[in-house]
Amino acid sequence: MKQSAATQRRGNAPRLLHNAKISFTEHNNGAHLILDTRLGFVDFWPGTGKWKTRETSSRTGYGLPNLFELLE
Asked: HSE of 71 in the Cβ direction (CA atoms, 13 Å)?
């Protein structure tokens, strides 16, 4: 049976974050990741690709490429 796109993203996200040297903790069986970044904590939901920074002027977006760009 072919995996859904959301399942594939949940499976790939930890490896991509590890390769980018971003530490994180997994919650809800990998459905929610909390990243520890230079901007502070970032909530990331790999199934949808949505992320949200916890800083005062919080920013939101979709996709790891966009998140990596923000963190550069």
From this structure: 23
Q: What is the CATH number of the domain that holds 48?
A: 3.30.457
Rounded to two decimals, the pTM is 0.88
* Distance (Å) of CA 51 to CA 2, 33, 45: 26, 9, 6
Instruction: Report the half-sphere exposure of 29 (CA within 13 A, side-chain side).
Output: 1
Beta strands in the chain (DSSP E): 23-27, 32-37, 40-45, 50-53, 60-62
What is the residue type of 5?
A: A
Total domain count for the chain?
Answer: 1
49-70 pLDDT, tens digit per residue, is 999 999 888 899 999 999 999 9
> pLDDT value at position 55?
87
